[in-house]
Amino acid sequence: MEKITEKLLLEKGSPKTNKLEEIKTLNLSKLGLKHQDLPVKLLSRLQSLERWDLSGNRLQEMPKDLELPALRCLDLSDNQMEDVTTLESLSGLEELKMEDNLYITVNDNHKLMALLPKLRIYNGKDISTSANHLRFVYTENLRTRVIALWEKNFSLPDPITAEKMSDLEERFVNTARQQVKFGPSSVSDFTKWKVEIIAKEYLSSLINPKEEPEIKEPTDTKENCEVSMPCKRKQTESVMDTSIRLTPRKKLRSDLPASPAAESPRKSGRNLQALTENNTIRMSPRKKSQPPSTPTRRQTSTETPKKGSKVQQTKDDAGAQVKQKNKAELQRDTDKLFTTKSCSKTQQPVSLKPLHVLQCHSKQDSSEDFSTQLWACAFQPLPDSTGTSGGSRLVATCGGDSLCVIDCETGMVMKKYKVPGEEFFSLAWSTVLMSRGGGASAQHCSILAAGGKRGLVKLIHPRNNVAYGEFRASRKALSVLRFNHHQGNFLFTGSYDNKIVMWDIGGVDSHYNYKVVQLLVLEISATPLHICLPPTSPSTHLLTACEDGLHCYNTQLGVSNNTKSRSEEMEITFPIYKKEDKDHDYHTIDGLSFLTDDVVASKNYMHGSIYLWSWSRTKAQRPDKKDRTVCAVVLAELQWANTEIPYLALNTCPGRAYIVCGDDKGRIWTYHVNNLQKNSLQTGKPILPTEVLEWPTPVRKGLGQVEGPSINSVAMDPELQFLVALSDKNMVIVWKREETP
Q1: How far apart are CA 187 and CA 170, in angstroms?
Q2: Whether 698 contacts 710, CB under 8 Å
Q3: Are 470 and 544 in contact (CB under 8 A)?
Q4: Pairing label, strands 549-554, 698-700
Q5: Burial readout 360-384 (b: 16 or more C-beta within 10 A, e: otherwise)
């Protein structure tokens, strides 16, 4: 055993380590070892193993119940595999090679897709679309037939005894295997195998029923889904040459025309004066709108300012008392909230300084454009396989007819995509697998999805500067996009026809072939503004902030209550609703983000406060079957700006325990949760922000200052090295963290 361990620790390509638990790659043939040389006890210690080459080992099966949670790539080619069900415990597999196994049939291939929920690359090919069709659509058809067979021919015995149930299970399973027919005859063995599993699970659910949320009857839904062909798009420099009429900001309309109109559904703003005649932006000293002790620094620059100034927090009197059903319980929950992170990096607040101001979304690249509104920004996620510490410094921004990828450190626009006639409202990053063919292993690649006025989703691979495809998600404008962070090929799109649609966009190959399939349609009562997936259950629940409130939906696929189209499971209400009158409607939720696995930050834009509330405790309050409303279990209330301007989105940085939200005067309100004033809860007053970053007041040479605009969106990288804010006056502001000694 010791000699084998020594050989394993010498494996090339894996980081040098003295522990089996830290080995990430393993190739037995290079070490002169066979699979049978490794006892299961030793294998079970390889908890960090990501890539395992077992080719040419004459294997007939894998050790049963072997758990390797980090394993994502397995090479079993050139073996004698017969029983693929022994791979079931390797549930994290994304890539599998089974070539040159003579006994593997098409039925075994189907079993592998059903047993391994994350499998996307099989023998070098992307199978994510066909696999998900089998896991959800095909399986649901079988389940429907199994249930119909039970309801027609079977019933539970009375009384229920172990002997009677054993006999019933045998008869029901055998009958189902014989009578339930679906799919081609070439996979009949797989169908019988899957039917047996479904029949046993269904019978078990009748004896030990689990409470499931009530789902309303589905409304009429379209079954067709549009699949676009792959294409490489050259970057175009042409721009839509239309003037933008600036009108007072108003609520989003949910009655948009079917075809894109010249005016954007999100168009809003205030009358402003043209301020420029040249391309130079510089920072001016901040106005001392804060207390006299507020420090200021003068800075000048050409296109990207290099210095910023630190500002004090403001302490405006605002807010309402937090309503509490049980003060003792809520106080305990709130105490936990303030100690959610134990690592030292979250204990102290950060210091941020303005670094760059960019006008990279201008119409016709004109520096005189102060009317294009910028709507969404997000930092590029780093794939798990990179092993790089810290976060990315690349941020994607969208507004007008363009989408940009910016290096926050240098202030350089690394990529820019223009689509004439489009106005982008939302974007989202994800990581998918790119198969490369020729026996090469698939690799993770970061992609961008973006959409807006035209109802089309653009799919972009920024690293290779390729916009590789598009598909129509709606006949009306798209308001929001969100990927499932646990299943990167699942994309949610929200649109102005009051729907959220779940898509499987699959992966891509080296030629950018791809396929898109519609999986689920959620019927929304108003325009969705934000979509959040709970960190611990992104495949079962979805929260959407809408113009008429906050709604929760069940999005689990492949369950007995699965329908192609679903309606709301419950609505989450807030204490401020009780203060509504004819002049004050607090239902529009225009900010929503998870701070921890359980704590959610949300805001109702006319409220002047940000709520922090518990997702688990709110969800645990089972709503009445007729009235599905549930009041949020509020943990804290944070003071924010007094404004009637909507759609100023907040964001969170869980890694640093931060909440950030801009206002209509160009200020950025920051809240370091671990450093907030706990005693504010006892006084009933909203908690003051940790710091309010003043608008850095960029100016044109000789022409004056640009007054603080509305901050439509903010984003932070996971380590809060950078904060990016988007304005409604065509400016991207980059803030950088100042390292404290």
Answers
A1: 23
A2: no
A3: no
A4: unpaired
A5: bbbbeeebbbbbbbbbbbbbbbbbe
Q: Residue 596 is inside which H or E element, if any?
A: none
Alpha-helical regions (H) of 10-92: 40-43
Using DSSP, state whether 327 is helix, strand or coil.
helix
Cα–Cα dist 605/588, whole Å: 7
Q: Which of 610, 719, 706, 695 is nearest to 661 (CA)?
A: 610
Cα(564)–Cα(572) distance, integer angstroms: 24
pTM: 0.69
Nearest in space to 453 (alpha carbons), one of 411, 504, 399, 416: 399
Q: Supply the angle between the helices 139-153 and 162-179 in degrees, to the nearest 10.
A: 120
3-state class (DSSP) for residue 139: helix
Longest dimension (CA), the chain: 92
Distance of alpha carbon 431 from alpha carbon 384, whole angstroms: 9
Distance from C-alpha of 691 to C-alpha of 353, rounded to nearest angstrom:
12
Query: What's the token pair of residue 473?
Result: 């998600």
Regions of the chain short of the pLDDT cut 50: 1, 12-15, 211-262, 268-325, 340-343, 385-390, 560, 679-681
User: What per-residue confidence (pLDDT) applies to 425?
Assistant: 96
Do strands 121-122 and 95-97 pair parallel, antiparallel, or not at all (unpaired)?
Answer: parallel
Q: Of the candidates 218, 219, 175, 231, which has an alpha carbon nearest to the alpha carbon of residue 198?
A: 175
> Which phi and psi angles does 132 have, rounded to 5°?
-70, -35
461: its two tokens: 């691979």
| φ, ψ for residue 682, nearest 5 deg | -75, -30
Name the percent of the chain in helix, strand, coil, to the closest 5: 20, 30, 50
- Which residues are within 8 A (CB) of 364 and not within 5 positions of it... i.e. 6 or more apart? 239, 241
Spatial neighbors of 504 by CB under 8 A, at least 6 apart, are 128, 129, 132, 489, 490, 491, 516, 517, 519
Strand pairing report for 73-75 and 95-97: parallel
CA end-to-end distance (rounded Å), the chain: 49
CB 144 within 8 A of CB 119: no
CB 52 within 8 A of CB 30: no
Q: Is 332 exposed, middle or buried (0-12, 13-18, 19+ CB in 10 A)?
A: exposed
Question: Mapping DSSP to helix (H, G, I), strand (E, B) and coil, where does residue 22 land?
Answer: helix
Residue 301: predicted pLDDT:
31
What are the C-alpha distances in Å from 302 to residues 138, 357, 413? 60, 10, 16
Question: Where in 269-347 does DSSP place strands (E)?
Answer: 281-283
In this structure, what token pair is assigned to residue 554? Answer: 């069940």
Per-residue model confidence as pLDDT tens digits over 35-55: 555 666 677 778 888 888 888
Q: Could you tell me the two tokens for 559?
A: 């369950």
- What pLDDT score was predicted for residue 353? 94
Contacts of 712 (CB under 8 A, 6+ apart): 373, 374, 375, 647, 648, 649, 662, 726, 727, 728
Residue 542's identity, in one-letter code, is L
Nearest CA among 76, 54, 69, 85 for reference residue 123: 76
The pLDDT score that the predictor gives to residue 566 is 78
**Which amino acid appears at position 546 of this protein?**
C
Query: CA 561 to CA 615: how far, in whole Å?
Result: 23
b or e along 600-613 (b: 16 or more beta carbons within 10 Å of the residue's beta carbon)?
Answer: bbbbbbbbbbbbbb
- Closest-CA residue to 22 (of 40, 44, 49, 4): 49
Q: How many Cα atoms occupy the beta-carbon half-sphere of 363 within 13 Å?
A: 17
Kindly report whether the peptide bond that precedes residue 159 is cis, defined as omega within 30 degrees of 0: yes
Hey, what are 281's tokens?
Answer: 């932006």
Q: What is the CA radius of gyration of the chain?
A: 28
Looking up tokens 């072939």, which residue turns up?
513
At residue 212, the pLDDT reads 40
**CA–CA separation, 120 and 110 (whole Å):** 13
